[in-house]
Design brief:
By secondary structure, the chain is α/β, with parallel strands linked by helices. The chain has one domain: 3-Layer(aba) Sandwich (Rossmann fold), CATH 3.40.50. The chain is built from 8 helices and 10 strands. The strands form 2 sheets. The chain has a 7-stranded parallel β-sheet. Strands 4-8-7 form a 3-stranded antiparallel β-sheet. Strand 2, helix 2 and strand 3 form a beta-alpha-beta unit. Helix 1 packs across helix 2. The longest helix has 19 residues. It is globular and about 55 Å long. The two termini are 21 Å apart.
Length: 268
């Protein structure tokens, strides 16, 4: 597992966007062999999306032969609702890049048969050739997508009941009213994410420090679902300095030395 440590969230975003762009360019995608990208929502990827949009507008990157699959969506929230993940993705990325609408895949939280929607999502991923690179973020409790503590580490795309803590945390987006926060969501499973050929998790901010510590220094546990990244052959964490505040000093130094062996100006 690689751990990339940058100064702040903005630097993490620039590095991650550059990494994604390089992967897309190197794959030289075509209509018959597209690059398949898994995407998250939340505050962590916003700097990434901002830079990808800039690259696309500048002619430095194209998404014409890229297919995307998003991690999750609320159940029962209209796609045009300002807190739906459909709305988030179009506002922060899709309407700023040249990706064809038919290449965008987001779970339908208003499907008449939610279980069938989840099963179909898994089939669509397989039909696309599998996900080449899955980008993700984590919650302060170490969950990835809506795979909250206690979720199976082999789980697939499914309907998920949200925990009280998640509903409380997300109520800030709904005017502080917990009753307005959906109680159910559709989410890819931990196993779905792990099937990707490469996984890159963004972890930024002091409030994610304990989660980063558990994911990097702790054991693999269903109580910290992102810890499964330790088992992936091509797992990467891109984090900022505030998020490393609970890591052992030797751990930080180890990963910094691997990624930046010639940087003599660091302070530990």
């Amino acid at each position: 597992m690689r751990v990339i440590i940058k100064k702040d969230q903005n630097e993490v975003g620039l590095w991650t966007a550059s990494y994604i762009a390089d992967k897309i360019r190197r794959s030289d995608p075509t209509p018959n062999k597209p690059f398949v990208l898994g995407l998250p929502t939340g505050s962590s990827p916003i700097p990434v999306y901002r830079e990808l949009a800039r690259m696309c507008k500048a002619g430095e990157l194209s998404f014409k032969n890229v297919i995307t699959f998003n991690m999750d969506e609320y159940v029962g929230l209209d796609e045009n609702h300002t807190e739906s993940y459909h709305y988030f993705m179009f506002e922060n990325l899709f309407r700023h890049i040249d990706i064809p609408r038919e290449h965008i895949n987001i779970l339908n939280g208003n499907a008449p048969d939610l279980e069938a929607e989840c099963a179909d999502y898994e089939k669509r991923i397989v039909a696309a050739g599998g996900i080449d690179l899955f980008i993700g973020g984590i919650g302060p409790d170490g969950h990835i997508a809506f795979n909250e503590p206690g979720s199976s580490l082999t789980s697939r795309t499914r309907v998920k009941t949200l925990r009280y803590d998640t509903i409380l945390a997300n109520s800030r987006f709904f005017g502080g009213d917990m009753n307005k926060v959906p109680k159910l969501a559709l989410t890819v499973g931990v196993g779905t994410v792990m099937d990707a050929r490469e996984v890159l998790i963004i972890i930024t901010g002091f409030n994610k420090a304990r989660a980063l510590r558990e994911v990097v220094e702790g054991g693999v546990s269903h109580m910290w679902t992102a810890s499964i990244l330790q088992m992936h052959q091509r797992g990467i964490i891109a984090c900022d300095e505030p998020a490393t505040s609970e890591l052992h000093l030797d751990t930080v130094k180890y990963f910094m030395d691997i990624e930046n062996p010639d940087d003599k100006n660091r302070h530990f």
